[in-house]
Amino acid sequence: MSATAQQPGATLRPATLRDAEKIHALVHLHRDELVPRPLGNIVEHIDRFLVAECDGELVGCAAYQIWPEIGDPLKATVEVQSVAVRVPYRHRGIGRLLVMGIVEKVRPFSPRELIVLTLTPAFFESMGFHETPKTHIMHKLYVGCINCTKHANPFTCPEHAMLLELV
Ligand SMILES: CC(C)(COP(=O)(O)OP(=O)(O)OC[C@H]1O[C@@H](n2cnc3c(N)ncnc32)[C@H](O)[C@@H]1OP(=O)(O)O)[C@@H](O)C(=O)NCCC(=O)NCCS
Predict the structure, then answer these.
(1) For ligand 1, is residue 86 a contact (CB within 6 Å)?
(2) Which of 1, 54, 85, 119 could pair with 60 as two cysteines, CB 3.0-4.6 Å apart?
């Protein structure tokens, strides 16, 4: 991805620290669908975020995390996280722009695959992801899902594990 990528009506760019509060508000607004993130966590990992803007307004965000514990550490797995688009800006391709922006951002690192845990598998299927057994991402379940306050068991949680091979 170039420093900024254009799509009719939307601009994609790397997040800056000035975006942190708006990203926090957007993720919090979607707390039913997304893992909550404290503001400090967003600041700490701001280099992993992309944001989408329309008319100078931040309307969407997405982030990633590298998981060397899933698969071969030298061809690690990357998780797509915190994908959200503000309601009035949906169904214009901005979510897809954000996820494909993350793909382009991490591709130079040569990861083997992207994963995501999601309640909207059809959105990710439209970009080539396919469902994978949750056992494939056991480390993520141990580290992330252990602190979940919504579901007692990651295997009965309604989120789907999705995978996109990059090699
Ligand atoms: C999921 C979300 C990011 C999609 O954003 P968006 O900008 O509307 O998505 P796009 O316009 O790029 O949609 C791309 C494709 O995904 C599919 N899609 C989009 N939203 C969908 C949904 N809610 N359910 C099922 N499929 C969906 C459509 O097939 C669409 O293709 P089309 O426009 O050719 O029909 C947005 O609905 C959102 O912020 N939801 C709340 C947070 C969330 O659930 N995030 C994902 C979890 S990780």
Answers:
(1) no
(2) 85
Contact 18, 53 (CB under 8 A): no
Task: Please tell me the number of Cα atoms within 13 Å of 38 on its side-chain side.
Answer: 3
State the DSSP code for 18.
Answer: G
CA of 123 to the centre of ligand 1 (A): 5
Which runs of consecutive H residues, i.e. helices, occur in the chain? 20-29, 39-44, 94-106, 121-125, 138-144
The percentage of residues in the chain with a pLDDT greater than 90, rounded to a whole number, is: 73
Cα 26 to Cα 39, 51, 70, 112, 141: the distances in Å are 11, 11, 28, 29, 24
Local structure of residue 55 (DSSP, 8 states) = T
Q: Which of 26, 82, 85, 123 to mutate to test the pocket of ligand 1 (most atoms within 8 A of CB)?
A: 123
Domains, the chain, ranges and CATH? 5-165 (3.40.630.30)
pTM: 0.93
Which tokens is 7 given?
């799509």
- For residue 88, is pLDDT > 60? yes
